């Protein structure tokens, strides 16, 4: 396993139950023992869930930053139909509900960073561009995310067919643990994780397409906050050039692009994990300094 720089000491972990649209969702929180100076809300990817952050959460907390992770409906230990991503409005409503609760708990003055990994970055971008989302935030980080993936890979006729898809037949995402990490213990964890989702219904892909449309054809102007795209030097799953172009469009070319020295997809399961946590913590806490100054 990855050697640790320091043992986490300043943390407590809890699961906060939330009810959204009659469905109970699990909001995980790693909280510093003292009041948090900053907070990060993490959007997990397709197959992952909050349990994948068991080492990352304590490290954020040790930096005086609270980490919140919502197990998406049907993922992790949240209720909801497995393998099913509901309609766009339900997805957005769940995140609005969760982030409203996070902001209530941390207060109005604590800087909040929204951090989306892989598919979670597409959920994040869609949420930001939905008119119902009004929760104040101070920074945005996209991590190893292929923004606009379906629009990049599918032609107009294929997208039209996908948008009309209503099949419950399962579609395999073809995810391989060796693309995520070189570490054999992490690879075994991914391969044997009973809570991981590797297949979704075909109609769920129509939802993913609808989420992309929210930010590829935006209808609202976003507040100007520091935005960053972080990844490895290369990524076996993501076309970095394609996603950087979309990121540039979303940020009017004012965003930061940062590459960490790894060729793998899931940075938190590589030897750059601690550097990414520390960078994200500093990036978050600096927004508090800017606001106070």
Automatic annotation (TrEMBL):
<keyword id="KW-0378">Hydrolase</keyword>
<dbReference type="InterPro" id="IPR029058">
    <property type="entry name" value="AB_hydrolase_fold"/>
</dbReference>
<protein>
    <submittedName>
        <fullName>Alpha/beta hydrolase</fullName>
    </submittedName>
</protein>
<feature type="domain" description="Serine aminopeptidase S33">
    <location>
        <begin position="35"/>
        <end position="267"/>
    </location>
</feature>
<dbReference type="Pfam" id="PF12146">
    <property type="entry name" value="Hydrolase_4"/>
</dbReference>
<dbReference type="GO" id="GO:0016787">
    <property type="term" value="F:hydrolase activity"/>
</dbReference>
<dbReference type="InterPro" id="IPR022742">
    <property type="entry name" value="Hydrolase_4"/>
</dbReference>
<dbReference type="InterPro" id="IPR051044">
    <property type="entry name" value="MAG_DAG_Lipase"/>
</dbReference>
């Amino acid at each position: 396993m990855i050697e640790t720089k320091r043992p986490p000491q300043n943390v407590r972990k809890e699961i906060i139950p939330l009810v959204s649209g009659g469905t109970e969702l699990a909001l995980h929180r790693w909280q510093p023992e003292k009041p948090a100076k900053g907070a990060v809300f993490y959007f997990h990817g397709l197959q992952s869930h909050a349990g994948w952050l068991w080492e990352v959460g304590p490290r954020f907390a040790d930096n005086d930053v609270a980490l919140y992770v919502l197990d998406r409906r049907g993922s992790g230990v949240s209720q909801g139909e497995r393998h099913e991503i509901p309609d766009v409005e339900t997805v957005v409503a769940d995140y609005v509900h969760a982030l409203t609760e996070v902001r209530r708990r941390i207060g109005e003055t604590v800087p909040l960073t929204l951090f989306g990994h892989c598919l979670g970055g597409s959920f994040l971008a869609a949420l930001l561009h939905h008119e119902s989302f009004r929760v104040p935030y101070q920074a945005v980080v996209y991590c190893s995310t292929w923004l606009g993936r379906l629009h990049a890979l599918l032609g107009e006729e294929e997208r039209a067919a996908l948008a009309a898809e209503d099949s419950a037949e399962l579609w395999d995402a073809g995810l391989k643990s060796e693309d995520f990490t070189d570490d054999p213990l992490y690879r075994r964890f991914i391969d044997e994780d009973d809570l991981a989702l590797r297949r979704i219904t075909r109609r769920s892909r129509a939802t993913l397409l609808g989420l992309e449309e929210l930010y590829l054809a935006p209808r609202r102007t976003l507040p100007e906050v520091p935005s960053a795209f972080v990844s490895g030097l290369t990524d076996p799953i993501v076309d970095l050039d394609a996603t950087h172009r979309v990121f540039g469009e979303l940020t009017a070319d004012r965003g930061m692009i940062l590459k960490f020295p790894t060729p793998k997809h899931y940075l938190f399961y590589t030897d750059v994990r601690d550097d990414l946590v520390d960078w994200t913590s500093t990036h978050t806490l600096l927004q508090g300094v800017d606001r106070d100054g």
